[in-house]
Every structure is written in structure tokens, then in C-alpha cells.
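hey so u asked for the seq, here:
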Amino acid sequence: MRALVTGGAGFVGHHIVNELVKQKIKTVVFDLAEPSDFFDQNPTLKNSPLIDYIQGDVLDYDQVDGAVKKCNTIFHTAAIADIEESRHQPVRTMQINVMGTVNCLEAAKKHAISRFLYASSAYTAGKKGSFYRVSKQASEALCKTYYEEHGLEYTILRYGSLYGRESNQWNFIYGLCKAVLTTGEFTYMSSPESEREYIHINDAAHETVRIASEKEFANKAVLITGHQRIKIKELFAMLEEIVGKKIQIHYNPQLVQSHYVMTPYSFEADVATRINLSEYIDISEGILDCLRAVQNEIDQQESGKPGDI
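ran it, C-alpha cells below
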């Protein structure tokens, strides 16, 4: 396998890159980010002979086409993934998330890619998620239609609630950990009864790469989510126990609710194959690791020096 990871400097993308390199797979990283930013975030990959980095934009077909050459597998993760950002920028969301996907599919078709793996979301199975959900639904339909019309093999990866080190600033777990360590309070914009099945990004990346090489997942949608269902109020209680202090939690459900409460699913959605992890990172261990990472970041910002973990 020689893999291309679009959005390879993003949260999902760079963890997939790390997993590919761990498995000794040659990988092309394609992202808008400066190469120096990527390698600063991933110093162990800086001199790796398995990595080629191409700075480019999924909206530029020629750049995408150049990156796809000599690859046989594509992990397409480049997207606007912040639901709140998508609510306020519907046009840009559709441009990047849908037209960017079309460009990648066209290049994949041209170069006879063996498998196109599309990073989607559990939100596609329901009615929440604003324009983000719509863009993912449209792109899933594009993957299926490229297979029907051109025989381009695909796998749709519907990720659940991801968390872990090096997550985006708007990631819920990241924001929660940072708030707890800086202010000791947090505002949650939904119900305390909300439930999630969090999956650590390392587990998700491992399963993503495994799925790419297994024929049983060809031309299917798969659900990659955690096996530990937890209420938000229970998550807050667990975090209080870990840090050893009381956290002030403010519940402020929004009138316009873009996130689901109990489940992302609706009756009319098609059914994805759920991936059952044989091993996974426990939510408490994952939260503790996130706290360490956020504390290290805070220490660096305060001292201006690299932190230690």
C-alpha cells in the first residue's frame, strides 16, 4: 500500500498518518498547513523515509491530481469539521467538504485507486449537525455513485465522538479539560442527560488503517465509535474525581440545537456496520492523558518554554 491522507495535518488525519507509518506504509500527507507546522507537531516523522509532504488545497484539482499519483489508497479526511463553524459558513462548508471530495474522487478515478476511504460522521445517520451533516451526507452519496458509475471502491468511515491528544481547539473533551485546569468551570450547551460513546483517536486510527486492507469493508459504511456509553453528567463526575476538586458545570441548552442528545440516528437512515474493537483505551485513561497534554500546553504558554510530560 502507498497511501495518500488528505487533511493529513488535522486531528484525524495526522493520527492516521502516524498509524500508517507505524505499520511501515509509505504515506503522502496532503494539507494546507505549512510542512514545518506538521513536522513540529509530529517530530518523529521529520526524517522518516516513509513520509512525503505536499502542501496543497483539495479545491485545486491539479494539486490533488499531483498528490494522488503513485498512490493506491486514499484516506480523505480534509474538511470543515466544526459544526458551529459550518452553521455560520454554509457556502464554504459545501465548497470544501463536497467539492473537495469531488476533486479527490475524480483524481482517484483517473489513477485507478484501489480504495477510497472517506472520513464521515455518525451525524449522517440523523437530523442534527447542521450544514456539516448535509455536506457529509452529500459526500457519502458521491462515494456510492462513483462506485456505481465508475467502479471506484470505497469505504465510508462514520466516526463517533473522537477525543485524544492534539485535538482541535473546539473538540469537546479538549475544551472541557482546558476549562477545568484553568477556570474550574465549564458551560455545556445541552442536557446533562446527553449520552456519548467516546472513542480515543488512537483506537480510531488503528481501526481505520485495518479496515482499509480488508475486503469485507469494501463499498460499505462502517461505524467507528466507542464501547463505553456515558452520560455527560457522569463524565463530569469522573473528571472531578480525577482532578480531585469540584467543577462548576453550567447547563445552557441552546434553542437551536445542532448536536444530538441521546442518539445521532433517525429511522430513515441506512445502517452502517459497527466496528467492534477487541482492545481499546478506557475513557478514564484517555481523559487523564488529555489532562496531561492540556496541562503541558498551559505550562508552555505560561513559561514560554517546552513542557515536560
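The longest helix spans residues 90-110. The radius of gyration is 19 Å.
lmk if thats what u needed
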